[in-house]
Write a structure and sequence with these properties.
Its cofactor is Fe cation. The protein has 348 residues and is α+β, with helices and mostly antiparallel strands. It has eight helices and 17 strands. Bound molecules: 2-oxoglutaric acid and fe (ii) ion.
Length: 348
């Protein structure tokens, strides 16, 4: 089956250069085109990372986690020059000729899919709606599982810049997960202790290509993220990310120098649903390309994900079934291809 022609994804950058309209496999069904977007009433919260020890800022974080699951972070400690360098190196990678990019292709022998590498999502069914974007997916930790063969050699700065960005991002994860445990009255390192030395950190660099008919496609279909927590660095000037809250899509602002952070499905389970893993998507754009760098903090494939025991009591039993990380991940990709959420299948 994997050898069927339809199951081999195309590179959207190449496709966009050769068509006037997106082919049918990319075009959304009518129900997904009804874009009810709230631009004004409320905005995604801004959290000052340097003040999270203060009760008022931690309360702001609690409110953000319970309603949005996604927030902007300022004073995060990553220099603007490093943020610019990561975006510039990522764009430079995608601007290279196809042959160069394909040196890190996610299709072995041109057709057998692996998660890591350059290309597109796996096509699991003939009816899967494809996203109008290309991706570079890399494992950036643990160190002894990094496979540099999948990492671009060009631009030359790419590897160093990504490694530096990965190292500096870790602090953000530590501060936020520590505060989240405190907010739930768990041991401060309860969430951090869930990460063994085999817990993977992965990066997905998304490259969104302009589309002549942007309303017909999505750059990234609606999904919630796997993993415990994700940080997201986006191009300053292209607001395209939207987050779903109470059935309304909200535009996520892009603020120069701030990062976005959202929690993933594993955190929704571990917090027994107190913190929400937000559904989000990226809309397409007719003129401007866009690049984003998402960093995902995952768990050891053998680890069982379950609600924290201290959060459970008679009036508040577990709302999610236990699941092994690797089984969740297998389900994640199956559901993603269909546009559904594996998390929904885990609810008690
Ligand atoms: O590009 C964005 O703004 C969002 C990307 C995203 O949701 C992801 O990589 O999971
Ligand atoms: Fe995402």
């Amino acid at each position: 089956m994997a050898d069927e022609q339809w199951s081999v994804p195309m590179v959207v950058q190449e496709l966009a250069a050769s068509v006037k309209e997106p082919p049918s496999q990319y075009v959304l069904g009518e129900q997904n085109r009804l874009l009810v977007v709230d631009q004004m009433t409320e905005s995604v919260p801004i959290i000052d990372l340097s003040r999270l020890a203060a009760a008022d800022e931690a309360d702001k974080l609690r409110a953000a986690l319970q309603s949005w699951g996604l927030f902007q972070v300022t004073n995060h400690g990553i220099e603007s020059s490093l943020m610019d360098d990561v975006i510039t190196a990522s764009k430079a990678f995608f601007h290279q000729p196809l042959e160069e990019k394909q040196k890190c292709s996610n299709l072995l022998d041109g057709k057998h899919f692996q998660v890591e590498g350059y290309g597109n999502d796996q096509i699991k069914t003939q009816h899967q709606t494809r996203d109008w974007s290309d991706r570079l997916h890399l494992k950036v930790g643990p160190k002894d599982e990094i496979n540099l063969a999948n990492w671009p050699k060009h631009p030359e700065s790419f590897r160093n810049v990504l490694q530096e960005y990965t190292a500096k991002s870790k602090r953000i994860k530590h501060i936020i997960l520590g505060t989240m445990a405190r907010l739930l009255e768990l041991e401060e390192d309860y969430f951090l202790n869930q990460f063994s030395d085999r817990a993977p950190t992965t990066v997905r660099i998304n490259h969104y290509v302009p589309c002549p008919t942007p309303d017909m496609v999505l750059g990234f279909k609606a999904h919630s993220d796997d993993g415990v927590l994700a940080t997201l660095l986006v191009d300053n000037d292209v607001a395209a990310l939207q987050v779903l809250r109470d059935s309304v899509w909200y535009s996520v602002p892009t603020n120069p120098r701030s990062l976005l952070v959202n929690i993933g499905d594993f955190m929704e389970v571990m917090s027994n649903g107190i913190f929400k893993s937000p559904v989000h998507r990226v809309v397409a754009n007719a003129e401007t390309e866009r690049t984003s760098i998402a960093m995902f903090y995952g768990l050891d494939p053998e680890k069982v994900i379950e609600p924290a025991a201290d959060l459970l009591h008679q009036k508040q039993p577990a709302r999610y079934k236990k699941v092994k990380t690797k089984d969740y991940m297998a389900g994640f990709y199956e559901h993603f291809a269909r546009g559904t959420r594996v998390l929904d299948s885990m609810k008690v």
